Structure formats: structure tokens, C-alpha cells
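User: Please predict the structure of the protein below. I'd like the answer in C-alpha cell form so I can feed it into my own downstream comparison script.

Assistant: Understood. Taking the following sequence of 402 residues as input:
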Amino acid sequence: MRLSLPLAALAATLLSLPALAADPKPLRIGVLNDQSGIYADMAGPGSVIAAKMAVEDFGGSVLGRPIEIIAGDHQNKPDVGSAIVTRWIDEDGVDVIADIPTSSVLLAVQEIGRTKNKLVLASTGGSSDFTGKACAPTGIHWTYDTYALAAGTGASLAKDGPWFFVTADYAFGTALERDTAKAVVAGGGKVVGSVKHPQGTADFSSFLLQGQGSGAKLIAFANAGSDTVNAIKQANEFGIPQSGIKLAGLYLHITDIHAIGLQTAQGLILTQGFYWDLNDETRAWSKRFYEKHKAMPTMGQAGTYSAILHYLKAVKAAGTTDTATVAAQMKATPVDDFFSHGGRIREDGRMVHDLYLLQVKTPAEQKYPWDYLKLIRTIPGDEAFRPLAEGGCPLVRQQAAK
């Protein structure tokens, strides 16, 4: 059967047009973290939930495109994380990588973002080298870093030593010990030694005995997740605090305190970029998160939400997903949400915001579930984070040269 002329013309026109009726290509955000290992509680599924909440609160789409969150488990291995991110970008059309605990993975992903021109929004990975010697125009560090933890906990307890470090033997632990030791010495304290342990250590007895026999008055744990939980629990089982030696968890989360228990954790000092019970805004968001996850959010999970929401606002304002344009828009716009009011992103990629020095409550002080911390003081962002000129970021030198 031959079509009439008008119908044939219409059919030809429709065939020549782009597939306007096809679904628009989604904007994909990849949340990369440890989904089932030692950092699963502080990041893991909770960070994926926080990312999805950011998308929901933003409205679910931007520039006419639906927003999708996909998750990957890097198993705390740089090669695994790098393979996932490369596949996401090359095959799955992922535009942004977020969260990324384990600093060795984070620094590897930073290089992929630099090479492939994709934004990396770090929340739970902590090495201050991310915005220092390894900085990239595509990398933004959101929640905390090892310098800030040192400026909080390390500086506050500097003279409570001499100090001994029990340190995780990878990039994060090395950076955390380095930055904290500098803060301790600058604050008039003394470091008498350190020992490194493998990631995922079950038995800390030999490391704790070295600290106990070093002459230290404070043993500091430069590790994270279940490593920190196990180390603090075992130190108490061995009677180390009862012998007069203080303990300091340099990188603790609300989920770690929950796992340790107030009876054991009471009195510990910690530095946080966020605490769920700070004010009405943090409580309102955290209670929504709790309904979905059945645990209060860590600072990293809240930071993942904030970073993604700020990114989506920048995409909308810029009218494009072009990496350089969106990064410039993010840096030009103050961060304004429950996580931070007036936070700003510097040229080295550091998001500067207030941090909080807190102390774990005693069981008698607890009033309701997850009521674990009390505020000692707010640390202004410019005091908490490393001065721009001291990080060694090549981007800062290039900007100064211009």
C-alpha cells in the first residue's frame, strides 16, 4: 500500500526528527564507599540513603533530566575503586563521584576525576593531601580532613601527653598521625612513639602494650571505623585507662560511640563536622534520616547529602552539567543548609565551615537514645582548616601567578 502524499511527508518528517519523545538521559551520581566492611557504619548504605534524600529534596530532576543515584562498594581497595569509577564514567555516564572513605581510594579517584574531567565530592575520605599536594580542579573536600581533626582534638589535648600513636597503616592513618603530631608539638606537647597496624586488625594487644610501655600518658588512635571501636574496647579490657593513661580517638563517629557504648566511651574528646543533635535543623533532618536507616547520621553521611545538594543547585543555576562551569558555580555560591550556613569552597577545593569539639557524655547524662555528645566549643572554619597558603596545592600557586 502506497501512502498518500501528506502522510508520506509526515512520516518522513517524523523519521528525520530527533527522538524527542524518548526519555531524557539521566544525570547519574555515583556514591562510592565501603558497603560491608570496617567503614560500612560510618558511610556505607547510610551515605546512599543521604544521597537519595538530597535528590528527593531537590525535586528529583534538573535541567529536564531525572537524577539517579548509583552505589559501588570499593572494599577499601584502590584498584577496585578505580575500576568501578572508570566503568561508571566510560560506560554508565556517571557525572559525579561522591563520599569515598579510605584515603588511598580517594586519592586514586581524585586522579581519575582530574584525567576524565569529572567532579569528585569527598565526604568521608580524610587525607588533607586531597586539597594539598594532590589537589585537582575537579576535587572538592566537604566534611573534614586530617588537618582539621588535628586542629580540634590534637590541639585541645596537646599537653595531656606525652603522646603515643596507634596508627592505621595506609594513607589516612599516616596523614592523621602526621597532622596531629604537628598540632601536639605546636601546642607544647610531646610525642614519644607510634606503631602501625594493618587495616581490619582484630587483635590490638601487641600495639596497646607498646603504647603502655612507652611512657606515654595518652594513647591516640589514628584509625577509623571498626578498627577504632575494637582498639578502644580492648584498651578498656586491658585496664589501660584505669592505669592512668588517657585514650583519644582522633577520628570517631556517632556510630562508633554507639558501638563502643557510653560506659566505655564516656569522656572521650572528638572533633566533628556535624552532630545530629546540635540544633533544631540538624535534629529535623536527622530524624528523617533515622526513619530510613534506623541509626543517626554520621558527619560523613550528612556531608554527602550537603555536597550533592549543593552540586545540584549549582547545575540548576549554571544551566549546564559542564564540569568546569559547575565547579566554578559551586565555589562562587555559599553553602546554605542544615550542615553549614555560610560555608565556602576555596580554590584548592576545601569547603571551609565550622567544626565542633565535643565530649562523650556519661551514662547518667544521657537523656534519650543517641544522646551521646555534648558540645565543648565551636571551632570557626578558618581556625579548623589548614591555611590556603600552607597546603602546597599547585592550583593556589597558579592562581597567585595570574
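That's the full C-alpha cell string. Residues 1-5, 7-21 have pLDDT under 50 and may be disordered.
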